[in-house]
Amino acid sequence: MRAAGLRALADLGFRGLDIGVLEPVIVTGYHATRTHKLTVGQKTASRVLVVGRAPVEHGFAHLNS
To answer: Which residues pair with 25 in a beta bridge?
Structure first.
């Protein structure tokens, strides 16, 4: 994907895949912990990501079963 200049929207399960890479290929939302609460901007960015992924996920939902 990197060689082709493509990016992918992914869920939080893919966090850490591109650690240390200057131009990440996998775009994920933000993750909150007990000690690190999300800012309003991070929450908004995560929501936008979910909305962007939703049509693709629902289109392939039947493959999960």
So the answer is: none
